[in-house]
Amino acid sequence: MSLLRGLGASLLINRHWTQVVVKNIVWATLAEGTVRGLKLIVLPLIARVFGPAEFGRFAFAYSFASMFGIVFDSGLALTTTRELATTKGNEELLPDILLIRLVLGGVGLAAMALGMRWVTRDHALWAMIMVLGLAFFVLELVNLAFAVFRARQRMEYEFVVRVIQTVFLVAAVALVAWRAPSALHVSYAYLVSGVMTVGVLLAVMRDGRWRVRRSVRVEAWRRLFRIALPLALAGGATTIYMNIDSVLLGAFGRITETGWYNLATRVVGILLVPTGLLSLVIFPAFASTAARVDEAFRKRWDAWSVGMVALGAYLAWLVLATADPAVGWIFGAAFRPAALVLKILAIAVLLVFVYTPSYQAMIVFDRQRTLSWALLSGAALNVVLNLALIPPFGLYGAAWATVATHAALLCALVVFAGKSTPVRPLSGVVVRGLLGAGVSGGVAWAVMVLAKVPLWLGVPLGSLLYVAGFLGMGRSRAAAVAVGLLGR
Fold it and tell me: Of the segments 90-99, 201-210, 279-288, which one has the largest average pLDDT value?
C-alpha cells in the first residue's frame, strides 16, 4: 500500500523540477495515447464510409475553417500559460481573457462567413464550414482551460477533460456514420461534442475567476495583446501552411485529391504528436528556469533536442518503410495514392522534430516577434509554392511545397535561436545525435524493407536495431568526449 500511495503522490503532487516534468510527461502521454487511439477509430471510419470524394469535401471545409483558428486563439492560450506560470497573481486576468475570446469569436465567424464565398460557391460546403467554425471556436474555450492546467502544471486535469471530449466526439461520429452518414452531420458531431465538453468544464470549474469581465480593462488588454499578438502571428502562419494546401486543392477543383492529401496530412499530424506533447510538458519547466541559463540548463536543453532528433528520425524511417501497405490496409484501396504523399511528408516530419526546440527557445526567451516574422515568411513561401506546384503536379506538388517550407523554417529558426537566445540549436551534441539517428535509421529501414521479411516481424526488429544503434553510438560519442577531456 505504501508503494501505491507513493506512486499516486508522485503523479498528483508537484514537488521538484524533475518530478514535475516526469509527472506531466506521464499524464500528457496518457492523454495523447488515449485521445489519438480513440481518434484513430474516427479517421478510418469516416474515410471508408465516405470514400475519397466525399471525404475530400469534408477535408476542404475542415481545413478552411481551421485557418480561422488564428482569430479564435490569437496567441491567448500560450500567453495564458506563460503569464500564469510566471506569477499566480496573474490569474486575475482570466475574466479579461474570456471576454477577449468571445469578441474574437464573433470577429472570426464573421470573417469566415465572408471568406468562404471567395473560395467556393457550393452552399452545402458553406454550411459545413460555418458549423465547423462554431465547433472550433467552442474548442478554443476548452483549450483556454488546458492553458490554465498547464500553467499550474496539473496535466492530470487536462488528461481527464481531453478523454471526456474525445469520447463525446467518437460517440457522436459513430452515431452519425451508423444512422445518417454525411459530411454535414459529421460537422455537427464535432460541434455537439465540443459544447458538451464545455458544459462539463462549467459544471466542475466553479472558481470565481472563471467569469467573463463585463467591461474592457484597457491596460489588461494592452498587456495581453503585447505578448499574444506575436504568438498569434506565429500560430497563424503555422495554421496557414498546415491548411492552405488542402484549401487550394479544393479551390482548384481537385476534391478527390484533397481527400487523399488530407488523409496523409492527418496521419502526419498523429506522427507529430510527440512534438506538441513534449513541448507542453517541457515549456513550463524551462520557462520557470529561463532566468538563469547555467550548465545544468544547457545539458537539459541538449538532451531534449537530441531526444527530439532521435524520435523524428525513427518516425520518418518507419513511414518510408510501411506507408504503402499500411494505407491500403487501414483506409482501403481507394486511398492508396495517399501513400506516396505520406512518404514525401515523412521528410517534413523529421524537419519539424529538429527545429521544434529552436521554436520553443524563441518563446521561452521572449523572442516572439522574431519568431512570428520567420513563420509568416514561411507561410508566404508555402502559399507561393502551392500556387506554383498544385496546378501541374496536384497533391504531390502540395507535398513537396510542405517539405520545402519546413526546410526553410529549419534554417531560419536555427539561425535566429542561435543568435537571439542563450541556447545553441546545433551544438556538437545535437549534430552528433543527427548523425547517429541517420545511420541507425538507415539500418532499421534496410531491415524493414530490403530484408524481405513480413512487416509484423520487420518493424519490431528494425525498431530494436534503431534504438540499439542510436544508444550504442551515443555511448561511443560520450566515451570519445571523456577521452578527449582526459587527454587535456
Answer: 90-99
Contacts of 383 (CB under 8 A, 6+ apart): 240, 241, 244
- Could you tell me if residue 44 is inside a domain? yes
Residue 89 lies in a domain: yes
What's the pTM?
Answer: 0.77
Q: How many domains does the chain have?
A: 1
Are 11 and 26 spatial neighbours (Cβ–Cβ below 8 Å)? yes
The b-or-e profile of 20-41 (16+ CB within 10 A means b, else e) is: bbebbbbbbbbbbeebeebbee
Query: How far is it, in rounded angstroms, from Cα 355 to Cα 333?
Result: 35
What does the pLDDT read at residue 209? Answer: 59
Residues spanned by the domain of 400: 2-426
Give pLDDT tens digits for 419-435.
888 888 888 888 888 88
Q: Which residue has the higher pLDDT, 91 or 14?
A: 91
Residue 274 lies in a domain: yes
